[in-house]
Structure formats: C-alpha cells, structure tokens
Amino acid sequence: MSNPGASDTTPIHSIAQLVDVLAQGCKPRDAWRIGTEHEKFGFIRPEAIAGDNAPQAGGTAYATPPYAPQGIETLLRNLHKSEPDDWTSVLDEGNIIGLKGQGEAAGAAISLEPAGQFELSGAPLRTLHDTAEELSNHFDSVRPLARKLGLGFAPLGFHPTATRAAQPWMPKTRYGIMRDYMPKVGTMGLDMMQRTCTVQVNLDFGSEQDMVRKMQVSMALQPVATALFANSPFVEGKPNNFLSNRARVWTDTDNARSGMPPCVFEKDFGFERYVEWALDVPMYFIMREGRMRNVAGRSFRAWMNGERQDGLEDVTPTLGDFEDHLTTAFPDVRLKQFLEMRGADAGSPEMMMALPALWTGLLYDDAALEAAWELVRARPWEDYVKLRELVPMMGLDTPWGEGTVRDLAAHMLSISMDGLQNRDMVDEQSQTSEWVYLAPLTALAAGAPTQAEHWLERYYGPWMGDASRIFLESEI
After folding, report:
1. What is the DSSP letter of 251?
2. What is d(CA 109, CA 97) in angstroms, rounded to the nearest whole number?
3. Which residues have a Cβ under 8 Å from the Cβ of 5 and sit 6 or more positions away?
4. Residue 7, pLDDT score
5. Which residue windows are transmembrane per the record (predicted)?
C-alpha cells in the first residue's frame, strides 16, 4: 500500500488531464526497469520471551510484535541509525512509519502494512541480478537488527496462527480510515489488511498499445501466478482447505476496487477507459495541508463534476488527488505509470525472485509477449475470471481445458524462459542468465509441491499438527 502525498496541485478540468497522468508512464525500452516489492510477517522469537529485550510484557512466542516499545518502531529507527546515508524517516503525525531511500538506496522504500508487515519497495532496477542483490542486502540489513530485538520475519501469504483481534494496528492515518470503511464493503477486508502478505513486481510499458497488451496478458494470467505462488494454507493454526487463503480473502475484500475489472478486456480499453473505471472507485482520503482527510465512500467523479459531498465542499480536486486515488484501487494488475502484478502470496527468497523473473520474461520481450497473448486469447475472458475463483483452493490442480492449471503454467514458463533468454542479461560475476531465477517454478510445473503443499506435508508429518513450527522454518 503506497504512502499518499502526491504534490501536484494542478486543478482538474478534464478527463484528458487524468489520461495524461497515466500516459506519462510511457518509456523507451532502454528505460524499462524492474521494481520488486515484498512483505513479511514479524514474529517474536522464542528465546526473546525470557530475555531482557522482550518486545512486550506478557508476549508469547511467535506473536506479532507491537509497534512499540521494542517492536517495529525500534527496528525502523535502528535501520535508520545503522545506514543514515541510505535512509530518511517517513513520519505520520510524529510516528515513524517507514524509510525512504536516498544515496545508494534511492528509489527504494521500507514501509509498514496495517499490522506491521514489513515491506521493502525495491528501487527500479535494470536486471533481475540487480534485484537479487537488493533483496540479499535488505535481508542482511534487517536480520541482525531484528534478532537483537528478539524478532524474526516469515514471508507467508496469510498469517498462519494469529486471530484478527490479536493483530496490532500501526499508527498510519490511512489505515484508520480503511479500518472503519472495510467492514461496510466486504467480509474480509480487515483480514486483507492485518493478516496477508504479498510479493509484487512493477514493470514498465512503452506506449498505450504496449500497456494494453501487457495489461490484458498479465490480468488474465494472474490466477496462474496465484496457483504457482500459493503459500497460505493455515488460518489460526489449522488448515482451512485453501492453498492460498490470501487469494480467497481478496474475493470479498472490496469488489468495487479489486479483482479483474471487465473493462480491461473491452475493445476500447486504454488509458482513458482505466481512468473512467478508477473515477468510480469509491474514495478513501484526500491530503490537505499535510493532513489526511477522511472522505471514504465519496465519489471522485461527482467531486470532479462539482456535486456537493460531505468533506469535499471547500476543496477542488487536483492531479495530486487523482494520483493518490489511484493507489486506493486494488485490481489484480494495477495501472499507474507502470503495471503492478498483484496476484502472488509472499514466499521464500527464491520465490521472491521467481515472481519478477516470470513476469519480466513474459512482458519485456516482444516475441514472448506476442506468444503470451496468443496463449491468453485462445480462451474467453470469463474463463480467467472463473479461474480466479477456483485456484485459491485447488491451486495448480485446478481443471483447465482437458488438463489442469499446471499445464497452463508450463506453457507460461516456457514463454517466459524464452523471453529471458532473448533479453540475454548476464550477471558479470556469476556469468548466469536471468532465466536461472525461474528454477523453482520449473520444478512446480514438473510436479513439485507448492510452498503451501510443502507446509501441509510438514504439518501432518513432523510438526504433528503444530502450525507454529512454520515461523522458524520459513524465517528469512
């Protein structure tokens, strides 16, 4: 979830201005970059409970750490102190809620999800090798500081043991607004906020036509990514018959702003059609004089048209307001001045790298993109919408045509492999190509268990029904 605060104060007079906001994302091919984001659950390590640095009085092993004291706030401050040339603090009403990269970390950010899920929003990087180095450096920075506080981090799609009531709330104004609004528009919005983690990749486009093709291909195939990256089979310590409970949660979070918008596959889809869809996504907030104003449920379109709405009577909509508003739409692929792939559970470091590798191979090579489009267009759009409903439970075994989603994933991976080979980005030190990062997915397509299936095997086997064992075994 992006931090708000876009500063363009230009008043909005026309739809064309909003279209131009998105069109400004068009970049020449040599400027295309890869931006990887990943989230992870914090937990209190067992040895910290009896120690002097116990994060909270009465804390229990594997519980989610508080914001303060000796919790997430302290970790953010210690990260800032340890690398002062790389980070500057991000504050919300005096509370540190993240770090913004500068110097060698320029373009990156560290932020907090509602229950303290720790997120690295990576810098836009040229190659997947650069992404791998960034992830490794992040883990190396966070791990020792977290250990000193008695904390660990587990990258999983849904919190395996905590109840919603047991999860803390981070002091971000935006999350307070969403916390009040979510129960009005869906049954699982608070679960999405407090008990889910994802890994995403942000990718560029060269033109409106290029954006449309990439958006349609990636939107249709997002359910396949959900199946490949399924990593959330437990709820409150027990299996709940879903391989990706995170994806299940998204089926009833707030359907006015999420899912697979039908407009994406309409013949006239483009920047303007996405703008029209976004204008009808209910608002959350606006920023004025450095403070967030709660306007949840209001209509941006009506505001633009000058209609009176509570909380908006004294203000004129600006381009900065619209840019902030775009961050409150949560489709499976989100369009801003780049495309965000949003269908995967958080997972192991190897899977964190496999996600950007998969989509980079499919979307950044012309021949691969065309092959992916031919794969997608062989079936009607409605089939992919239905697939989204089924894969949270059935994963790669979900029926697809005469076979399963595993077969569709194998086709997808073959195309991505070709795309990465055509890119021919070789790491100078290891002399390896980018396609090596697809290895975990290649194994899955060949029949290996998904992360969720692996954890279920552990649960019914050596863990003897103790799902809390997942924390130390998945810890980064």
Report:
1. G
2. 11
3. 287, 324
4. 77
5. none
pLDDT of 137:
97
Q: Give the confidence band of 2 by pLDDT, cuts at 50, 70, 90.
A: very low
Residue for token pair 């009005």: 184
Cβ atoms 41, 154 nearer than 8 A: yes
The CATH number of 15-281+329-474 is which of 3.20.20.70, 3.40.1110.10, 3.30.420.40, 3.30.590.20? 3.30.590.20
Tokens representing 7? 């500063």
Alpha-carbon distance of 325 to 327, in angstroms, equals 5
How many Cα neighbours within 13 Å face the side chain of 45? 20
List phi, psi (to 5°) of 190. Answer: -70, -30
Q: What is the DSSP string of 191-206?
A: HHHHHB-EEEEEE--S
Q: What is the mean pLDDT of the chain?
A: 96
DSSP bridge partners of 92: 95
Of 24-33, 42-51, 266-275, 307-316, give the lowest mean pLDDT range: 42-51
Ordered DSSP codes for 418-461: HHHHHHT-B-TTT--BGGGGGHHHHHHHTTPPPHHHHHHHHHHT
Band (pLDDT 50/70/90 cuts) for residue 49 is confident
DSSP state for residue 270 in the 8-state scheme: S
Looking at the DSSP bridge assignments, the partners of residue 433 are 426
